[in-house]
Write a structure and sequence with these properties.
Order of helices and strands: HHEHEHEHE
Largest sheet: 4 strands, mixed
Oligomer: single chain
Number of helices: 5
Radius of gyration: 29 Å
Structural class: alpha+beta
Shape: globular
Number of strands: 4
Distance between the termini: 71 Å
């Protein structure tokens, strides 16, 4: 009888431990455990009311500026009045958030050699950067990169596609 009772107690103990160890992962507890560390809100600005967009974020940049992209004419890298208007809104946003860094990408259409387009993309990105710097943005916050014709926005061999691919894009780094 003692042997049966001992076996019964051991079996009951093992089943109890097994039940505790194999709780489903989707069980929701009523609150944090005593040992759990208290999580704090992430550092930085809180989301804006109603939009869920964090001020100073890449999403805020895309939402706040006229465009993140300026376009260029064939074989050109000069900043025309339309590009100035777009870059003015970018400069104002960047000045509002002085700790935010950005990369300006230069792009070209498919025509021309790889080397020519890399150089032209660099001139486009640099022209956009220089404009932002002239508006008061710290040049240390801005980097440039040229992708030449390697990252087309529009695939096609027509003027509409080429026009979309001749661009400089400002990317806010989060």
């Amino acid at each position: 009888m003692v042997k049966v009772t001992t076996r019964l107690m051991i079996t009951t103990a093992l089943l109890s431990m097994a039940a505790c160890a194999s709780q489903p992962k989707d069980i929701v507890t009523a609150g944090p455990s005593v040992d759990a560390p208290v999580q704090q809100a992430p550092a930085g600005p809180a989301p804006t009311v109603g939009t869920g967009v964090v001020p100073g974020s890449a999403a805020d940049f895309r939402q706040s500026v006229t465009s993140d992209t300026v376009r260029f004419a064939l074989d050109m890298y000069d900043i025309d009045p339309e590009a100035r208007a777009i870059l003015d809104t970018q400069a104002a946003w960047l000045l509002r958030y002085p700790n935010v860094r950005a990369t300006i990408e230069g792009h070209c259409d498919e025509r021309g050699t790889r080397e020519y387009n890399l150089a032209l993309g660099d001139r486009r990105a640099t022209a956009a950067k220089n404009y932002l710097v002239a508006k008061g943005v710290d040049p240390q916050r801005l980097t440039t990169i040229s992708y030449g014709k390697e990252r087309p926005l529009a695939v096609g061999s027509d003027e509409e596609s080429w026009a979309q691919n001749r661009r400089a894009v400002t990317i806010v780094l989060s």
